[in-house]
Structures are given as structure tokens and as C-alpha cells.
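COURSE: Structural Biology Practicum
ASSIGNMENT: Worksheet 4, Part C
STUDENT ID: 0417
INSTRUCTIONS: Below are two proteins. For each, the amino acid sequence is given first, followed by its C-alpha cell string. Answer the questions at the end about the second protein only.

PROTEIN I
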Amino acid sequence: MKFKAIPFILFTSLLIFIIVTVLVVTENAPTANLNHAFYFFIADQIHPTLTTIATLIGHLTHWYSYAPIVLILLIIPRTRMEIGLRIAIVLSTSAILGPLVLKNIFAIDRPTINQLIEPGGFGYPSGHSMNAVVFFTACAIMVLRHCKNKTLKICFTVFAVIAILLVGLSRIYLGVHTVTDVIGGYSAGIAVICIGLLVERHITEKSKKNARR
């Protein structure tokens, strides 16, 4: 990813988040029909095995699954500053911004049509989707930066994209989020990543200027 593209991606993700938010909070919004149509399409595929897989995906994208990975990266000296600390910062930002800030600001209830699990808290934006974007994108960026194997870079990038999409689909499948919840989570997550990259670039450039003095 070229650095010049980051501000544009940030602007686009924020714009999408604002548009989706306005549609979500508007009564009788056309997105309600989209949410219902998409959910019922997925609901036709409900099967005990798929429900188990979707539930497992939910557990794998919870904080207690990310934490050990980040902790290991922080403990290992070679990855502590360059990888572990950076992923820990953006993931912590996402974990606080989503469930504790945005969800409570908008206070939008989750769908209640056919919940296959019992979630807690409000629905918009999807915290799992937001955290998935931040975590897997941050990991993919670190792999692209530090890994010399081109095949591994491609494979991990594809894996990251698939993982992010599966998280969103699993939340809709389980009946705990709508399409707009997931899109809101995705766009907010992308914004967090872009802001993190801009801050990182600013700190790096400032350090270089100070080193020259």
C-alpha cells in the first residue's frame, strides 16, 4: 500500500461510516429491507454444522483469542517494538472505540429475528467485524513489511481478506448483527488502521528530524 493512498482510504472509510450511520438511525430507512433480505438469504442455509463453525469463528475473533498472540509478540524481543507494540496499540484502540464508545453513542439494538446465540450490548457497529479488520489487516501489513517470501505474503493477505469476510458473515448468520452493522464495523476498522499508519508515519518522520539535529 502506497502511503499517499492512506488519506484517501481514510476519507472514504469515514464517509461510508457516516452514510451507513445516517441510514441506520433514520426511521423506515431503505437499509432495513436490505438487512432483512440478506439475513433471510443466509438463514436458508442454517445448519447445525454451520452454526458450530460460525460460533467458533466468533470465539476466535474475541479479545481472549487476540490477546495471547499480541502478548507473545510483545514478549519476544525481536518483534516487540516493530510488530507487537504497534498491533497492540491499534487493536486496543479498536476494542475501546467499538464496544465502549461507538456502540453506546448510537445505542442501536441488535436484530431479534432469530438469534442463534445470546450476545450482549448494542448492535451498531459490529465490534467483531471492526476488530477483525484491525487485527488481520495489521498482521498482513507486518507480514508484507518484514517477510521476504513473496508466496507467504500473498497467501497471508488472501487469508486475512477471507478471515475478515467470514467474521462478518458469521455475525449475520448467527442473527446478532445486520449487514449495516458489519459494514459499519468494517469501515470503522479501516479508519482505525489508516489513522494508526498516519500517526506511525508522523512519529517516524519526527524521530528522523530529531536524529539529524
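PROTEIN II
(use this one for the questions)
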Amino acid sequence: MNVSERTKAFLPMGRNKRSIALDLKDARARQAFLRLVDRADVVVEGFRPGVAARLGVDYEAIHARNPRVVYCSISGYGQTGPYAQLVGHDLNYISVAGVLGSIGSPGQPPRSPERRRGLRGGGLFAAFAILAAIVAREKTGRGQQVDMAMSERIALARLPRRADTLATGTRLGPARTT
């Protein structure tokens, strides 16, 4: 996609938004970010677990400055657990969530989906979790950290089909071409 195509795609989604790019490895830029945090309601970060802490912008640092902030961390496998430090992409997330085996044709090995299933909807799930944290903040006066794992989001979305499998004993497998 060239720059003009990228711009055309961005304009409808970025309408009336302001943005700033900061290199958080630079002390002055980090201080500018922290000043923005002082007035923020929500901070969303998508670093691998541990990176925000190394940069000094993790939940603990942000919460110390602004206890009302809702801090959302979006990663492939969550902030803790055995996979937390693994690099991941959409194909990894759908595989870990048990979805990859159901993509393709019966009798054939799984194939890479044409549409990115893992990333689609992740922002929406994060938005719901952030809104729930904002409602809680209105009751308690304190923000909280939201941990959004893309792989868990996919597994949750597949829950109805898994429940049907458990109820009927039918093994999940390739059922369609996607």
C-alpha cells in the first residue's frame, strides 16, 4: 500500500483525532508522555510484556501519577503466563486458541486463513473491558489495569462452538474454507 492509499484508509477512521508520535526511549519525550498521562482517562499500550516497565510507562508508574487512569495492555498472550514473552502473530493466536484446526476442508491439513481472525475484534473486546473499568472507576474512584490477550479473545469467541462440541461429543475439525 503506498502512502496515498494508506492516507485514504486512515482518513475515515482518524477523522477529528489528534495524534502525537513520541520515542519513549528519549527522556524528554517520555516526560511529555507522562504529562499527557496526568490528564488522561485511558492509556492503551501494545508492547510485549515488560517493555512498558523498561520504558518507565507501565501501569505502576502511570497509576502513581494518575490513580484514576484505566491502563489497557494488549498483547498476544497476556501479561503473565508461560506464553507471555513469546512473539506472536495472528496465525499463532488462532492456533493457540484452537481455531486453526477448523479452517480448511475436511481431510486436508489446516491452512492459513484469508482473513485475520485474531486481530479482528481485539480492539472491540479491549474497548468493552475499558468501558467496564471506567464504570468501576466511577464507583471506586480508582482506575485499574486491563489485560487483553488476543489469543484469549479468540478462544472466547469460539466458546459457543466448543460448548456444542462438548455437548454432542462431535470432534471439531475443518468444516469450511475461510
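ANSWER KEY EXCERPT:
Q1: Residues 122-140 form the longest helix (19 residues).
Q2: The first strand starts at residue 42 and ends at 45.
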